[in-house]
Write a structure and sequence with these properties.
- By secondary structure, the protein is mainly alpha-helical.
- It has one domain (3-73).
- The protein is 80% helix and 0% strand.
- It has 3 helices and no strands.
- It has helices at 3-27, 32-51, 60-73.
- Helix 1 (3-27) runs antiparallel to helix 2 (32-51) and helix 1 crosses helix 3.
- The longest helix is centred in the first third of the chain and has 25 residues, at 3-27.
Amino acid sequence: MDTDLLLTLGIVLLVLSVPSLLSAWVEGRAPRIGAIMVIVAAGMVITAVTTKPGGYTFNEVPGAMVKVVGRLFN
């Protein structure tokens, strides 16, 4: 899998896990699904950063995400 795609999916999954975590916290229940999503997303991001030669800088992340979205719609 492409490292840019892996990074983008990991970041999107991490953002989508926030509502699940907050919902579980407000309702007073265990955040099982949210925690699993965070673990999977963190694994995807870490894999992308360590697999790409030279890694990613913070300035490269938006460009990588735009490139992935561009490939999706192209």
